Structures are given as structure tokens and as C-alpha cells.
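To start, one record:
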Amino acid sequence: MYADRFTRRIRINTLRAIDRKAILMSRILVVDDNPALCKAIARKLQSVGHEVLTAHDGEEGLEAARREHPDLVVLDWMMPRKAGVQVCAELRADERLSNVPVMMVTARCSETDTTTGICSGADDYIVKPFNPSELARRIESLLAIGRLERLFGIA
């Protein structure tokens, strides 16, 4: 009986470790026309174990998302070639990418801007300047929600 409990505990701990590894090994696409901000966000996300890809305008970001199929997209609003809200709407319209969580990160801070960002399909919206730790926590929440949706067949 003791051996059964011990074996069960090992299995549970192994599953927890696998789940933590799955959380940490997410592929995140950061799309922002400010290379320094892209690099800072990438460093923060890499420091907690994520693989980070970057793009520096909306069109490049959309191409990268279609090519790489990330687990989450961090997206600026005001960018050359294609605005973030347009990119977000196109991601939602793409059957292969429609369930990828999108975090809008922008300097646009009015209530109307927030509403427009969320209505374009963003799952969350954070205003610049932001606390990098808060951004990381919100990203972890979006990734966790995505995993639960896949687990229960909602996505």
C-alpha cells in the first residue's frame, strides 16, 4: 500500500514537472517597431524560459505568425506597414491562428482605444510604459488559459 502511494506521488510530481516545462517552453512572437523594446520584452520572457521571436512591423509580424505559429503574440498597435489592430483582426480571421492569444501592448491609452483593441480580437491590453513583471504575469495567464482550452477541447 505504501509503495502504491509512493508510486502515485512520483507520477503526480512528474506530471507537474512536465506541465511546468510545457509552460516555460512556449513560443512567443513579439511585434513592435521599437527594436529596443522588442529586445527588452524578449529578454524578460527568455529569462523565464520562453522562446521568443521578434518582428518590427505589422506585415512582418503577420508573416512570422503564419510561418512560425506561435503560442502567443505580443503586439504593438502603432507600427509601419500594418497597424496592430489590423494584424490582430487578420490573425483572428486565419483559421490556423484564430485561437492564438494576443496581448496588445501600446501607448494608446484612452477607453476608446482599449475597446477598439479588444474588439479587434486582442485577449488582453496593456499600456506603455508598463512593468515588465506585470507583462510576464499576464502572458503566463493567457498561456495557461490557452492550455486549459486545448485540454478541454474548447479551442
